[in-house]
Write a structure and sequence with these properties.
- Helices cover 34% and strands 12% of the residues.
- It is of the alpha/beta class.
- The chain has one domain.
- Strands 1, 5, 6, 7, 8, 9, 10, 11, 12 and 13 form a 10-stranded mixed β-sheet that branches.
- A hairpin with a 3-residue loop joins strand 7 and strand 8.
Amino acid sequence: MKDSIKDIGRRQFLGQASCAGLGYLTFMNTLLNFKALNAAAISNASVATGNEYKAIVCILLAGGSDSYNMLIPHEQMKYTEYATTRSGLAIPRSNLLQLKRNTASDPAKEFAVHPSMTEIRDLFDQNRAAMLTNVGTLLNTTTDKNKVLNNIDVPLGLYSHSDQIEQWQTGIPSARSSVGWAGKMADIIGSCNSNQNISMNLSMNGPNIFQTGNNTVEYSMSPGTGSVGIADYNPQSNFILSEIRTRTIDSLIAHQYQDIFKQTYIDVIKGARDAHVQFQDALSNAIAFTPGLFPGGYLGSAMETIARTIDVHSVLGFKRQVFYVVFGGWDHHNELLQTQAGMLSQLSQAIGSFMAGLDLVGKQDDVLTMVISEFGRTLGWNGNGSDHAWGGNSMVFGGQNLLNGGKIFGSYPSLEADSPIDVGGGVLIPSLSTDEYFGEVAKWFGVSPSDLNSIFPNLGEFYDSTSSNYPIGFINA
C-alpha cells in the first residue's frame, strides 16, 4: 500500500512540476521534460547489429516553400507552360541551372534548378542529391477534383500552416497529434544507443512535435555552441558569478533528500548537468573544420555543429541520431523572387558545406539529409508572390553509396493552367505521399515493417510494408 501511495504521489508530482518552479535556475535543456523519467526499455530488434551508424538530418523550410521555382522544367515546351502559368514569378530560362543527364533515357536534363542553387545542382550532378516531385499529405491516391473541392478525402486543415506543418512532423494526415514520427522511431529503436542520458533526437530549435515520442523528448542544441545546459553553469569558468552559481548548483545536486519528490527532481537536474558536460567534452575533441568551409549565419552554423556532433557519435555512444533544423521565413506572399533567391542561396551553401564536412569525417554514406516544408505554393501569382497550396517538390542528400542520386522521383506534373490535378489557382493534388517519403527514410533507418505501419498508419494506402523494395526508391537498396 505504501509503495502504491508513493507511486501515485510521484506521478502527481511529475504531472504538476514545470520549469516555472525551478526558481532562479534557467534550464533550457529539454531533458528536464519529466516525460523522460518514465521511459521504458524498448527492444532494438529492428536495428542492425554491429557498429553500424545512421543519422537523419531533417531541415524544415517553415512557411511553405515555393518549390516549383526550385525544380523547373527546362525543355522548351514544358518551360513555356511554366512561364505562362507562373507569369511574373517565372525565372528566365537562360538563368536556370540545368541538371545533368546520366543516361540517354534519363529525363533529368529536361529539368533545371533555381540559379541560386549552385551547390545543390553540383550535388545532383555527382549523384549525391535526388529530387522528389509533387509531394504532399494524402489520405489515398485520389485525383478527383470534385472530392477535393467538396473537402472529401482530403487531409485535415489542408491549407493551414499549423495543421500541415504538424502532419509533416507526425505522419498522420487525418488527425491532430502531439507525437512525431521521429519521436516514435526513437521510442522503438532508441535503446540501440549505449548512451541513454542523451536523446537519440537532437534539436537545433528546442521542443518540437517531430522529435517528441510517447517516451522520448529531444535534446536541445545550439548552433556553434553545442549542448544547451544550465544557464551559467560552467566548471571551467573563472568568472566569479559563474563560479558561485556552479558551486551552488553542485551543492544542491550532491545533497541527498529524504523527500522522494525532491530527490526525483534533483536526479533529473543531475542527469541534465552530467549529459551536458559529457556532450561538451566530446564536442571539444571533434574535428575543427577549416574556417570558411561553412557559411556564416544561423543555418551554416547549425549544419557545422551537426557535422561536428556526428564526428564524435561513437564517443557519445550513438548508433542512431536524428537532427532537426528549422529554417524559417518561406511564407512568400510578397516579394517572392528577391527574397527566395537569397534564402535558396543560404540553403544551397549550407547543404553543400555540410556534405563536404561529412566527407571529411567519413560519414557521407551514413547520413541522410532531407528537406521538408508544410506545403507547396500556388503556381499562379497574387501580383507579388504566391499563396498556400498543396503538392510541392522536395530534396534528399547523401553519399553515392547511400543515395540513388542524380534522379527525379515521382511524376512531375503538368504546369499548364487547369491541368487535371489543378484544383484551382495552381493548387496541385500531390502524386507522391509524405507517407511514402517518410516511410522510405524510416525503413532505411532500421524500423521494421510492422513498426512502419504503426508509425505511419496511412502508409498501407500507398505501399506494402512487407515489400523488399523501398516505397519510392531514392535509397540504394
